[in-house]
């Protein structure tokens, strides 16, 4: 509690970070939905024009349908905008900006004048009238995220326009619109509006990211007090006073372990509370809940053995160090082992299984992902047993290691073995 930097890192920093994460998440969703892209169109004059008919339907100041689907070729663009029936949402109507380009080259793309390029050939109408298939090209910039978004949106629009063209041809021949459809495939994801798709992607990302964040903060909550209670006591000269007290070595280890365990768990609990608050705040701005609060409650319970694991390992590594600075170096391998095991659980398509549940940290992270998911599947009891069993085994081994370190005088009093270059050279030249 004396170290203000540790208190800031464990208590204040998460309280600042999570609101920032929530704000960034909202801004990310809004930017993905309302991101404006410029589409350059070459040969716009070769496209079919919009023809007025008495059955035109007006809505919101926009022309929703103003052509006879049985007589006219379906138009793609009117008044510098793609027709609304080809777009995924009304938001996209204002986000797709069309710019007419004279030459069919990539200069406008390279100069970032446009984000995607649509090339309509001059013989477009002639080939359609002859029953041939004209070639339409969609070009984008390599390695540019904005261009990728523009190409993806443009490809969806052209696909819907092509489907409309096909229905017109069937209607002219007296055939039903779905004449060439042998199977009816229903894709719920395709029918979702762009807002729902963006929220779903954000929710899937947070469900994987929250367990990773919880594991890392639990580890961070154990590292600093463990170093202070082991290597820090060596530096302050209070370790010797503690060892000559009536308390046994195992009791000393248990006391330090419990202190670090409590501090680590409180750090995890504080972060879980902030996560839940951030999820509730996001729920007010988004049409769907982000994570399951019941799953977050399970995460609070599972961090109890997780904090015990990090506390035992951190104490064992800390007591082996001669100073606080050296203790920080020794704890770096713990970070390097924790990071890949936790990141492994975020692998796309990887699902928890009976043997993965026994992998420390990976099984726990995957189980928390499944529990925090809003549409969570039932979790077999064997997965719980595997996660808890692996954590208990690791906690027992870490406590045994820490107790062994405290019983070794050569480890506790390694300060006397500090390496000195001058002393080593003198020992070489004075050796007989």
Give a verbal description of the structure:
The chain is α/β, with parallel strands linked by helices and 432 residues long. It folds into 2 domains: 4-26 and 196-426, no CATH class; 35-185, D-Maltodextrin-Binding Protein, domain 2. Helices cover 61% and strands 7% of the residues. The chain is built from 16 helices and 8 strands.
Q: How confident overall, as mean pLDDT?
A: 77
Strand adjacency order, main sheet: 6-1-7-8
Q: Span from first to last CA?
A: 52 Å
* Proportion in β-strands: 5-15%
Which secondary-structure class do the elements indicate?
A: alpha/beta
- The count of helical stretches stands at 16
Tell how many strands the DSSP assignment holds. 8
How many domains comprise the coordinates?
2
Please compute the radius of gyration using only Cα atoms.
32 Å
Poorly predicted tracts of residues: 53-67
What is the H-and-E element order? HEEEEEHEHEHEHHHHHHHHHHHH
> Sheet with the most strands?
4 strands, mixed
- Kindly state the percentage of residues in helix: 55-70%
Overall geometry: elongated
């Amino acid at each position: 509690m004396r170290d203000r930097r540790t208190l800031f890192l464990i208590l204040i920093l998460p309280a600042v970070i999570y609101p920032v994460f929530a704000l960034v998440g909202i801004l990310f969703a809004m930017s993905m939905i309302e991101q404006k892209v410029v589409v350059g169109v070459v040969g716009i004059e070769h496209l079919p024009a919009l023809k007025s008919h008495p059955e035109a339907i007006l809505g919101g100041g926009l022309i929703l349908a103003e052509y006879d689907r049985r007589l006219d070729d379906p138009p793609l663009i009117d008044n510098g905008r793609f027709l609304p029936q080809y777009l995924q949402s009304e938001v996209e109507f204002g986000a797709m900006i069309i710019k007419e380009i004279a030459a069919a080259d990539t200069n406008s793309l390279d100069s970032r004048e446009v984000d995607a390029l649509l090339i309509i050939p001059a013989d477009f109408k002639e080939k359609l009238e002859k029953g041939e298939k004209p070639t339409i090209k969609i070009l984008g910039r390599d390695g540019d995220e904005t261009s990728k978004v523009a190409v993806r949106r443009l490809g969806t629009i052209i696909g819907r326009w092509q489907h409309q063209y096909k229905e017109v041809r069937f209607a002219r021949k007296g055939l039903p619109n779905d004449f060439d459809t042998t199977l009816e495939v229903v894709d719920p994801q395709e029918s979702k509006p762009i807002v729902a798709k963006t929220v779903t992607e954000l929710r899937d990302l947070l469900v994987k990211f929250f367990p990773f964040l919880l594991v890392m903060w639990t580890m961070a909550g154990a590292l600093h007090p463990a170093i202070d209670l082991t290597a820090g006591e060596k530096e302050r000269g209070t370790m010797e006073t503690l060892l000559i007290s009536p308390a046994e070595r195992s009791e000393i280890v248990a006391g330090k372990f419990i202190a670090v365990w409590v501090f680590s768990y409180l750090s995890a609990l504080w972060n879980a509370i902030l996560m839940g608050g951030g999820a509730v705040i996001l729920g007010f701005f988004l049409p769907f809940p982000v994570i399951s609060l019941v799953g977050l409650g399970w995460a609070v319970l599972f961090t109890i053995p997780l904090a015990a694991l990090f506390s035992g390992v951190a104490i064992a590594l800390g007591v082996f160090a001669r100073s606080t600075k050296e203790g920080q170096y020794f704890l770096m391998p713990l970070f390097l082992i924790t990071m890949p095991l936790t990141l492994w659980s975020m692998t796309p398509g990887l699902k928890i299984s009976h043997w993965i549940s026994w992998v420390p940290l990976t099984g726990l992270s995957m189980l928390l992902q499944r529990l925090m998911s809003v549409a969570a599947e039932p979790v077999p009891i064997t997965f719980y047993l595997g996660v808890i069993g692996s954590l208990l085994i690791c906690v027992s081994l870490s406590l045994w290691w820490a107790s062994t370190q405290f019983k070794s005088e050569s480890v506790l009093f390694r300060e006397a073995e500090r390496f000195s270059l001058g002393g080593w050279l003198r020992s070489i030249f004075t050796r007989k």
